[in-house]
Amino acid sequence: MTPATERDRLEIVSADTLERELSFVRGAAAGPLPGIFGPRSITWGINREAAIFLGAGRALLLQLAHPCVAAAVEQHSDTFANPIGRFHRTFRTVFTMVFGTLDQSLDAARRLHRRHSAIRGTLRFAAGPFPAGSSYCANEVSALRWVHATLWDTALRESEEEIGLSPADAIRLGSLSPIVTVTNFYVEPYVAAIPQPYVYRPQEAEIAELLEVPVPALMDPAILEKKPYPGRDEPVLFYHYGKQVIWGATARMLEELLEALR
User: Fold this and answer.
1) Dist CA 75 CA 193 (whole Å)
2) Fewer CB atoms inside 10 Å of the end CB: C or N, the chain?
3) Mean pLDDT in the chain?
4) pTM (2 decimals)?
């Protein structure tokens, strides 16, 4: 197998393909200033429970299980030598796409595509169905889909482990806005529908209590409180439900989800 033959078999996101997709995004965007999603979108504000943070390492390992992703990281990245620097560079791009103006978001997508266009090479060793010498490219569709799928799969796996939610029972509705919590955790959230009533099986060693709250109760503005938080420009949200208080990242998720449901 020659590199040229292998490269012909790859489905690459070209610059022209990217521009066609960006034109579609521009037409569906919230506006020039609010950007692609806008402050009223689910993508801006919803998050998952803190237990999902524990799946970050698993998601990374799954991503590296794809031989092409692993080879690209090894040959073109300083992730292992400078993980913190890589973290900041990655999420600076992500947050620009999510929270930037429309022009900023689209320009960030173009810069990332150009950076990925230079990330190509060949596998040094055979791995699974990929023989040694197989070509890879960071803009290759199947590799991009693999990385995305690891995040969704990890979210389901953590939910099953923490609260006994079977992946077969979770109907995915969409992905949500990535955010950084006050404790500097980065979260890629997902939303799913679960059949009701449902018998949860929380892990007592990790879950102190499982709280179910009706949507109409959360939509009552009387239960919402906003207070300043040291070191943050925006106030922290608190939902008061009976004797329970829902706050922080979970409250941020709820705020945007409820706005989308109105």
Assistant:
1) 40
2) C
3) 78
4) 0.50
